[in-house]
Design brief:
Layout lengths: L1 H10 L1 H21 L5 E2 H19 L3 E6 L6 E3 L3 H12 L8 E8 L2 E7 L12 H12 L6 E4 L3 E7 L1 E2 L2
Parallel strand pairs: 2-4
Antiparallel strand pairs: 1-3, 3-8, 4-5, 5-7, 6-7
């Protein structure tokens, strides 16, 4: 993010200011929500949209994210769950303008399915899975149904079950 910021400041100072504001908002929110066991889905989606803006500034059309989470009322989840899954997809996969990485986060009833094409980075060692284990543990600690993780040769898919507030 800071390398992106430096480049923007040199090329387009106004864009650099906007990026800095989004980055500041993102980190401020992380500090606020990170103290909580669960946060409203609406807050998680707001944070995710800020993160997606930062990703778009950094990668442009190399990463394409489809976000379709229309019902944020009456749901909670552990903070940063969705952001971590998007971050994992970007971290572990190749993306280019010619061959963009497609990621989707789609709400289906009381769950959100995050999926991406698998395009492993060349020479990268196998993932340790620490991020996914962290998400699983936070769900378990909050007595939530653990995420369902599925993968094939071509796709990686995680279903996050939301905590419905009654």
């Amino acid at each position: 993010s800071f390398n992106t910021l430096i480049g923007l400041i040199e090329e387009n100072p106004a864009k650099g200011i906007t990026f800095t504001e989004k980055l500041t908002d993102f980190y401020r929110t992380i500090l606020e929500v990170g103290k909580n066991d669960l946060i409203p889905l609406a807050e998680e989606v707001r944070l995710l949209k800020t993160y997606i803006h930062l990703i778009k500034e950094r990668f442009g059309e190399q990463v394409r994210i489809d976000l379709d989470i229309p019902n944020t009322t009456n749901y909670t989840l552990p903070p940063l769950t969705l952001q971590l899954l998007i971050e994992n997809a970007v971290k572990h996969n190749v993306a280019s303008t010619k061959n963009p990485l497609y990621i989707s986060a789609i709400q289906t009833g009381d769950a959100i399915v995050i999926s991406n094409e698998k395009k492993p980075k060349y020479g990268e060692s196998k993932s340790t899975g620490i991020g996914l284990e962290n998400i699983k543990k936070r769900h378990t600690l909050n007595n939530l149904k653990p995420p369902l993780i599925e993968q094939s040769d071509n796709h990686f898919l995680v279903t996050i079950y939301l905590n419905k507030i009654t």
